[in-house]
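Schema walk-through. Below, the input block comes first and the output block second. Nothing else is stored per chain. Lengths vary across the set, and this one has 348 residues.
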Amino acid sequence: MKVRIIKKKKIKDLLKEVLPKWNLYVPQRNSGTDVWMEPLPKKEEPLEAALEKIVLDLVDTVISPKEVFFPQLESMFEFKDGNIQETSESSPKLIFGVSPCDLKGILLSDSFYRRTPKDKYYLSRIKNRLIVVKGCLKPPRPTCFCTSVKTGPFAETGFDLQLIDAEDSYFVEVGSKRGQEFTTTYKRYFSEPTGNYLITIKKIKTKACNSLALKVDFQKALNLMAQDRFIPEEIYRKIGERCIYCGGCLYVCPTCTCFNVVDNVKGTKGERLRNWDACIFEGYSREASGHNPRQDRWLRTARRYEHKLKFTSKVTGESGCVGCGRCLSSCPVGIGMSKFIQEITGEK
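--- output ---
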C-alpha cells in the first residue's frame, strides 16, 4: 500500500480546489455541539464559514454518512398524466473524514443494495464516489467497541484514502486506484514520507487500539446467536419492556437499510417517495389484512438483534453491527448492542 503525507494546514486549500468537481461532504459542527456530515457550499462566502466548522480531530457524527447515499427521504420518480420521469441522482461525491466503522457500514449497505433485485437509486448514487477515511486515535464516543468487531480504529480495506493523524500532518494510505489518481491529480498537496514511517504508522495504530476501553466478546455473541432459539425469550422481553420504541437506535445505525414507499398524489400528478423505516415499529410488519405477526413488542426486539447478529451473518458472512456505539449513545433508557452482547455472553 502506498503512503503519502499532507500537512494539516493544507487540508482546507485542498478541499477548496476539489470542490468545483465534486459534491464534497465533510464533518461539520453546527451551532451547538453536534457534528454532521454536511455538503460544503459552492459559493465563496458561505464556504469560508463552513470551512471553519470542519471537525477532523475527533469525528463523531450524529448520524452515519450512509444518508449521503441512502437519504432519509428521497423522490424515486415523478408522474403526470400517466407519464413517469425518473429522479435518480448520480453526481460525483467525495466523502471526506469518514470514520472506519462508518466505512464498514457503507460497504455493508453497498452489498445489500447490490443484491437482486438491484436498487438502481442507491447504486446511481455510489457510481462516482471517493471515500476518505479518518482513522481514530481515540474513541469518538465512550460507547465505541469497534476493536471487538474488527472495524476500527483504522480501516484495513474498502477505502480510497485513509488519513492517519501524525501531529501537524496526516499520513495518507492509498487504498484504491481512484485514491491513487486523486493524489496524483492534486500532487502539490501530497509528498513522499521519509524515515521509518511504516514503523511510526504501526505505533500510532497500536496505541489507538489500546485506547478503547469498551470491549465485548463479539465472536461469542455471534456463535450464540447462530444457534436457533438459544437466546432466552426473557432477555428479549426484558429489553422490550424498557424500550420506548422511539427508533433512535435504528435511525443512527450505519447498517440499517429498511425503508417505506409512499405515493404523494395530487390529481393526475405526483411522486413516489422513499423514507427510512425501522423493524421495531409496529406498522413495519403489519400486513394489509391488519394482521401483525410481530404485534408483541418483544418479538420486534428479537427481530432487531437477530437481524444484526444472525441473519446478516448468514447471508453475507459479516455482522450487521460495526461497533460504532451510536445505539447506546442515542438511547434514552440505556439500551444498546454492547449491552445486549454482554447480557447474552454473561460478561456482566
